[in-house]
Amino acid sequence: MTQILAVIQSDALEVELKAAVSALGEQTTLNTCPDLASSVSRLRHDAPDLLIVELSEGSAQVREWQHAIEVHEISCPIIGILDDELEGTDELLVEAVRVGFRDFLRRPASAGELDGVIRRIDKAKPEVGTRGRLLAVVSTKGGVGKSTIAINTAVHAAATSNQRVLLVDASLQLGVSASLLNLTPTITIADVASMQDRLDATMLREVTTQHESGLHVLPAPPTPAEASEIDDTCMSIVLGVAKSAYDLVIVDSFPLLDATTLAILDRAEHVCVVTENVVPTLTGTAAMLTTLNQLDVASSNRTLVLNRYQRCAGSLSASEVAEQLAEPVTAVIKHDRRVLEAANLGRPIILSSSKWGVARAMRNMANELLTKVSDNSISPTRADAKTLSQPEIDGEFPSQEQPVAPTAAE
What we know:
The structure is a single chain. By secondary structure, this protein is an alpha/beta fold. It folds into two domains: 2-124, Response regulator (Rossmann fold, 3-Layer(aba) Sandwich), CATH 3.40.50; 133-374, P-loop containing nucleotide triphosphate hydrolases (Rossmann fold, 3-Layer(aba) Sandwich), CATH 3.40.50.300. The protein has 16 helices and 13 strands. Strand 1 (2-7), helix 1 and strand 2 form a beta-alpha-beta unit. Helix 3 (59-71) runs parallel beside helix 4 (89-99), helix 6 (146-160) crosses helix 16 (357-374) and helix 9 packs across helix 11. The longest helix is centred in the C-terminal third of the chain and has 18 residues, at 357-374. It is elongated and about 80 Å long. The chain starts with a strand and ends in a 36-residue tail after the last helix.
């Protein structure tokens, strides 16, 4: 059965389409809605096989649909229906194809032409989606190295794969991505939020700041006042467009489970939870894992990283952390002052030439995260990329370097 959803304003066109669908028999059904906004809800709930859009308002309407396709991740084949009497029809056809329309109908709509479109769509089969995937990096408190994990993973992904990678600093009040990467951005996420109504993939790629690794960065706003202008709806729109513009989007979130963070989690294919082996931090992490369960974020779609790991009186081992949280620890990053030194220099530790210690642990962790978020569709391709077999948890790293006593938090 073919389910069709038609977005139409003309009563006459509705009559034409109903007659055409009726002539095709019971295997084809038609539902209608009057505008783009109502169609988004119907697309989510009804999952039609075909979307027919009446193109009667020119280029402005096509641009609105481009925005909707990117923001709402519309994957259903879209068919435009045009009136030959409309001026600039040929130019409109070209523009509609560019934004993602798959085929077209002419008025008056006929059963034969509609059947031909359905057959062409079926024969072509759905195109492989080109939407990017999103990794959200979260924690319940500051100071655990969440931003360090997000930034190093993003830099590694950009430097060791052929993918387009974007880092979004959504730690709106306390964003540090620009500083940790030694960047001086001219445009931040607050500026992008102000243009959300006209934001598209091309515009987003043009306004981001590029790091030497090839990573694109959308930094946090410089002041809390500007950050207050970004709400959950705005964040969802920005991330929706980001997933249409990039192969991989990594989001450094604010350490608070508010509406904006929930909007990030809603867009994410995978969630990296960062914690440390300190009892108060683990208490908050346990609460976050419970929340992720309530949000139906399956354990297979999340990774627990134990960062700034130290052995001291009263601290838990990695195996004890896993047992207490009832969640496997995928990676352990030891507390090391070289991470702080790298932060001060604005050069992520993962770019270090060292093959041992914290740099190696970071690379292993990043490879594991990239494999998980991409479902094996994005994997490191260059010679320095290695896969993780088992996390190095309690053992010492085989190293020619002398152990370095920790002096400060990363």
